[in-house]
Amino acid sequence: MTNLGLYLTKKSINKAEVARRTGISKSRLSQLSGNDSTKLRADELYLIALAIDVDPGELLKEVYKDLKLLKE
C-alpha cells in the first residue's frame, strides 16, 4: 500500500466519495492507493486534499514523507 493509501485508510476516507467529488476514477484512486509505481500528479493530490478537507501541504508531506535530501 502507498503512503496515500495508508493515509486514506488511517483517516477512514471513503475512496468512492473522493472519486465522486474529484472526478478521479475509482480505478485511478485504487492505483494511487495500492501501487507504489503509480505516480501521483500534483493536480490529483490537490483535488484529493480538497475533497477530504485537509491542507494540501499536509497531504503532500504525508504522501512524500520518505523523500530526503542527499547528504553532501
Automatic annotation (TrEMBL):
User: Where is each HTH cro/C1-type domain found?
Assistant: 10-59
InterPro entries registered for this protein in UniProt: Cro/C1-type_HTH, Lambda_DNA-bd_dom_sf
Q: Which SUPFAM superfamilies match?
A: lambda repressor-like DNA-binding domains
**What GO MF annotations does this protein's record show?**
DNA binding
Entries under Gene3D superfamilies matching the protein: lambda repressor-like DNA-binding domains
**One short Pfam family name for this protein?**
HTH_26
Q: Note the coiled coil stretches, chain numbering.
A: none
Q: What is this protein called?
A: Helix-turn-helix transcriptional regulator
